User: Fold these one by one.
Assistant:
Number 1:
Amino acid sequence: MFLTLELLSSLKWRVHFLDIYGIVYNHIAFLWSEIISLVVDIASRTAIGQGCARPAGIMECETATHELEVCNFVDNVKNFKFISGDKIVHRLHGSELTRDYFERTAFSSPVLVEQPEGLGIVVPPNITASDIERFIGPTREFDILDVASQTEICMTLMEWIKYFQSQDRKRVLNALSLEYTDTELEKLITAPTAVREMDWLRLYWPKDLPDDPCYQKPKFGKYCLMSTKGSFTDFHFDVAGTSVWHYVYSGEKFFYLIPPTNGNIDKLFSWFSRKNFSFLSDLVPECYVVHLTAGNSLFMPTGWIHAVYTPQDSIIFQDNFLQRYSIGLQIRLRVGKINDYRISYHYPAEVVTWYAAQGLLKEFTEHWSNSTVPPKYLLEGVKEMIPYLKDWIATKEDLKVHLNLASPSQTLECVIDKFSEYLRQWISPV
């Protein structure tokens, strides 16, 4: 038991006559994982029972020895003083979440809507885990997060549902990457009107692209999250700098939110790159807690750093989307290459941004024709976008494929020149 996994691995090559090595190695690795999972479960229950409202998260670990750091996380969060999310989260009725609201606020703070009425969402009643398996397909393979190690393992949906419905779970697992675009489930769920009116993929992806895999619309953004009791994700922001709509279909969640200030983002990048075993919430000025229950919707703007704890089995429907209110931050976070736990998914954010740029240019042209000026957030966002568009011309191969379809008046160079001309009239030179 005191042999490290690394030592066992080296023995494999030195002791060729041990035919049973593979069996022994796998059993020891599995036993070690089971021990760590048990420690996490006991420690988490103890911390929550003593009033801890914080997820028992750990940094990304590379070895079984590092996995033991999970105990440090629990020990350090018992007495952490979270600030009530009411100080930064806007609570609205669904009917108040309109385009006018987002134009006034530039979607700068999270929004909590307690009931689905007025949001324009459609979600089937009484849906079960077995229904989800049937609607998506039992053979779908996707990545599951092992909570103890914060590493991913691959399972089929049939295997996952069997685990999720089991009462005898030996490990705490968390399903965060089950995307359901182009499945029967997608036909049954409609995102809020506000999301559909903001999402660049929905708004700007052309419908007349060639019938070729190179031009296929990304299957991205529509997720069914299935989290087991005691699971968590550590601090991160969502993939590709996207904003998020979370709908708690069943169960409950605790979200721990850190505003995306430049200082906080710098701390996140530094903390992540060093795989630092300190706690990010101890390194920033404030960290807020929001408790979500069944029926709640949380709209999270771009870049909000968050950790999540699940006190009971939960099913969440979620949409990730790029939008107009945080263009600069979306791009900066994308360039920073710190994503959430769905790190294996490649989202062509540059291509989506290119098509959005064409749509925004038409909007700028309309403003110019009407002698009006676009809102300040949009002017600043487009100004920050232009240098990245110039860089992407030379560096992004998937974008080059789409640029080949552009007409002479809609090349990336022409789009940049037109934006620059408008911006010179409205704000400082680009």
Number 2:
Amino acid sequence: LLAFAREQGHSPDLVLHNSAVAAASCGASSGNWALAFTLLRNLQGAVVQPDQVTYTAACTACQRAAAAAQALRVLQVLPRQKIHACAIMHSTVVMACARATFWQEGAALLGRLNRGMGTRQAFLG
């Protein structure tokens, strides 16, 4: 769909990019985290920049594929992008850790969230 839009002379907007990343998370029963990350990487240097929805969709692809290391990496990138991770993103990363038997990393993330979130609003972003 992204390629088709470009072929037709259109510049895909953020909604279309987010839809493509989200579609990668729905592919097969295990998601396609590699495709989601390729789509995310293609946004680097583009006029359209990824947002919280884009990164959450990439984390969802990781969760479905049990790609915990990649999901945890997304959380590391967010501060540089000046994007706040919301409750859904954190939950998705914890579930990716659980599926990949990275239970220690998931528990550590939950501990950091418990210590770092003073209010419900801060957690929800």
Number 3:
Amino acid sequence: DGTALMHAAYALQNDREVVLEAVKVAGDALRVTQELRGDREIVLAAVKQDGWALQHASEELKADKEIVLEACKQSKDAVDYAADSVKSDPEVVELLSHGAE
């Protein structure tokens, strides 16, 4: 899980390369960083590993269709954290109707 990053120095918690590697292993590590929740590459890597990481993304990225789709591929309930504007997107609706886990 993301607890290793939680115990790291504050500077490391917001170091882009450190956080990117951490979320590739444990998507929930996104919850630790405050400064990088709006970094598209980091958030995309996090939700590909753990769909629930969407809850820690910036509001802007919660409205990003690709990120929401990737999160919902991991856990269909991740849609609860998506922006309303994306929840009704045909691709998202189709993915959810086909029983993503």
Number 4:
Amino acid sequence: LASVTALHGVTLDEETTSDLHHIMLEEEEQAVQQDGFQKIFWQQHKEAASRSGESKKGMRWHPLMVRWCLFLRHQSNKCYETLRESGCIHLPSQRTLRDYTHCVQSGVGFSTEVDCLLLQAMNLMTCPEWHKLVILLLDEMHIREDLVYDKHTGKMIGFTNLGNINNHLLAFEKSMDESEEEQESGSVLAKSMMAFMVRGLFTALRFPYAQFPCASVTGDLLFEPFWHAVYRLERMGLKVLGVTFDGASVNRRLVKLHDTSNKLLYCVPNIHAADERKLFFFSDPPHLIKTTRNCWSSKSRMLWNNGSYISWQHLVDLYERDKGRATGFAMVPKLKFEHINLSSFAKMRVDLAAQVLSESVSKALVLTGGEKAQETATFVSLFDKFFDMLNVSNFTIGLRKRKPFLQPFRSSKDSRLTWLEDEFLAYLDKWRRQCKQGKGSKKLRKS
């Protein structure tokens, strides 16, 4: 940019420069939104451009400007540096942004400093009561095994750490199972990270709360830190109404520990609540819809119900029929190659699963597959309605898409709740009883 400007640029005289400057100041109020981020960006850029030399280091950036720059850097670090080095716009340096991202020393487990940041983020002393209603999110993320030296504490980071109690239990279990030589080999490197996140039920709060590095976490080891997180949040004044997680065996075991009977458990008393309140367990709907699609597409499974196959081949035939047609002539225009030929990355995408288990696919299967694909179409239609009623994002999406199951819930007597119990759960229960009764071939019952 500098070389092009030097080669083709035109030097203006003082009068023309003054006129341009005057025009920009006059048009600023009309061209720039006076009560938005655009105004702040324009003012900050003018101030930064007017500084030179050592005075640039004393630039004070607006908090909204810093947040926007942090968002840009999070999207792409190289893109952010390219924008800074281009000279087109003036942005804070990486060192300045680091002061904001490292204002609290990161560590494993729970932290009083993080609790203080959460209180500030919520304005807990002045916010209304319904702002205090939160949900706790649990998720396990795989990480690369490695050790990092922390210059602030002088410790090596990367070993498993699930809290003092769980660390002692793991050490004792390891001493009982391994020989003396294996015990002397040292601590185990972490392979995954169990993360706790606080999510506002009626607010936009999304707050990473705690993390625990682990090698292979179990429901028994997760029990203590889970309830300790609930205790700390309740002690701060928040009201934890539930916990959301995926359908992994670790999380199912965590729920099972609260009641050893075979009955379905969906809530327990919140022992840390000041009032008599229950804590509800929620299985994450996006994970459920992905698991359903993955089981349907699996070559090692043969889904069968009511004497008919629920076959992935019916969807493949529908895709082959529409392939090559123009958008206006295709029955399911959203159905693409990545919906049918699932890679390891495609299996993790919720949008692909939701578009496969959709109303349009169900209707297309009825029209093209006939009686042979009727059970598959019923299967797709039921799970489409199930996901819709758990995916209500605003007040108007149901009207815009003309789907009643996307309407907001306004009463505990909503007809969709009756449908969920009388039709959807009854469908799954009947399917389960057919498998237990041994209807169909041995291979089908195993699937």
